[in-house]
Amino acid sequence: MNLRRTAALAAVPLVVSAAVAVTSSASAAGARQEQFCLVAGGHEQTVQRPSEVVDRLVKDTQSYRGMCAEYGEQLRLGNGKLIAYSVRKGSRPVSIGLIMTDGVLDGLPTDMPTDGKWCFDKDGNGTVDPMTECTGG
Description:
Elements: H1 3-28, E1 33-40, E2 43-50, H2 51-60, E3 64-65, E4 70-77, E5 80-89, E6 92-100
Antiparallel strand pairs: 1-2, 1-3, 4-5, 5-6
Helix pairs in contact: 1-2
């Protein structure tokens, strides 16, 4: 692990600690509270803090605005991974999505799987191009 990364990882708990300390004085002053996902030590937790604290944490850590996501299994695809996630408010899903890592679209098969049953010679040239004139296998 290089020195710069070690220093960044060591700084995260300090930033979180400082932001939490500021929270008590800011909330006493009646600052507007904002919901965000606090990411620290590999764990995520949805919490509310004053907006100026959230601004600092989002800038200096991996924390992000809004509710925390729940992540599903990872699937290797191409030269990368697909990861499903969802965000819920109570039992109601608010959003669902996929995270694609770098390379997920690289190394995919280039030949369409087809058995030739669903093809049509669209351009009338006497041959069927499986990439442009066939569907599904």
